[in-house]
Each structure stands twice: as structure tokens, then as C-alpha cells.
Amino acid sequence: MVAPNILVLGAALLAQAADLPPQRAHALANLASYVRSGDMPVELVAGGPLNVRVHFELSVTPEGRVSACRVTQSSGVSQLDAITCRIMRSRARFEPARDSEGRPVPDIVTSVIAWVAS
User: Looking at the domain assignment, is residue 10 inside a domain?
Assistant: First the structure.
């Protein structure tokens, strides 16, 4: 009698897992926290006040790594656009997205980074 109870419980747990909604990838930290003060090129800081935003899209692997970055709205400063993507590819880490069965899957994450120098 014990074995059938274990099998029934196992079947119930599998049924619950199949009912999980898919989950999007989410960063392990605020994406802006991956940008350090020394990342801003000195010549841009010396050039006077700067306040721009880079809108971007990240492809996140099932392992939670960034496999690609694409600028979706430029800051108008191509150097900062490129630096933003370089930083996100090398530093950003994610809890991967999961499908309805709880398996890690690829995902796309969009965000914005503000670059400010005074």
C-alpha cells in the first residue's frame, strides 16, 4: 500500500509542475549596478555635462549568460552604445527563463542604462 501512495504523490507533483506558467529571465542584480564609474571614457567626462540613455535588448541563454546585445535606441554617442553592450555581455548574469515545465530556456530582456557625467 505504501508504494501506490508514493506513485500517486509523484504523479501529483508532475501534474503541478506542468501547470507552472513560463517565467521570464531576470537579472541577478540591477543591470545598472554592472556599470562602474571607471567605465565612462575619460574624454567624454572631460567634454562637459552628459546625460544620455542607451536602450538595449539582451539575448539570455538557458544558463543565464548574455549571448548577444543589440542597441534598440542609441544614446547618440556610439562609444557609449558599444560600451553598454560590452559590459552587459561580459558582466550581466541572469536567473534564466523557464518554460511551463520548469526547464531553463532562452529569453530576450530589454532595458535602459543612463550615462551621466557632470
Answer: no
Asked if 82 contacts 115 with a C-beta cutoff of 8 angstroms, the reply is no
For the chain, how many structural domains are there in total? 1
Burial profile 6-45: b = 16 or more Cβ within 10 angstroms, e = fewer: eeeeeeeeeeeeeeeeebebebeeebeebbeeeebeeebe
Question: The pTM is what?
Answer: 0.79
Is the residue at 70 inside a domain?
A: yes
CATH number at residue 28: 3.30.2420.10
In a domain, 78, yes or no: yes
Q: Which domain does 111 fall in, by range?
A: 22-117
Task: Output the pLDDT for position 47.
Answer: 79
Give the model's pLDDT for residue 12: 42
Q: What is the DSSP letter of 103?
A: -
- Tell the residue number behind the cell numbers 549596478, with chain if given: 33
Model confidence pLDDT, tens digit, residues 41-88: 988 888 788 899 999 999 999 999 999 999 999 999 999 999 999 999
CB neighbours of residue 60 within 10 Å = 26
pLDDT of residue 89: 98
